[in-house]
Amino acid sequence: MKISASTQAIVLVLCACTATAQTPLERYLQGIAWQPYQDRAVQLLQEYLRIDTSNPPGNELLAAEFFHRLFDEQGIPNTVYTYAPGRANLYAVLKGDGSLRPLVLLNHTDVVRAERKNWKVPPFSGEILDGEIYGRGALDMKDEGLLQAMVMLIAAREKLPLKRDLVFLATADEEVGDSGSTWIIENHPELVREAEYLITEGGSNLIHQGGKTVYGIGVAEKAPFWIRMTATGRGGHGSIPIADSAPNRLASAMDRVVSWETPIRPLPSVEQFFRQIAPMEKEPRASEFRNIRKALENPAFAKALSQDENFNYLLRDTVSLTVLKGSPQTNVIPDTAFCELDVRLLPGEDPQDFLAQLRSVVADDRIELEPITRFRKPNSSATDTALYRTIERVVHEYNPQALVAPTLNGGYTECQMYRAVGPTCYGFIPVEVTPEQEATEHAANERVPVEQVRRGVRMLYEVVARVAGEQ
Ligand SMILES: [Zn+2]
Question: Ligand 1 centroid vs 202 CA: distance in angstroms?
Answer without folding.
Answer: 8
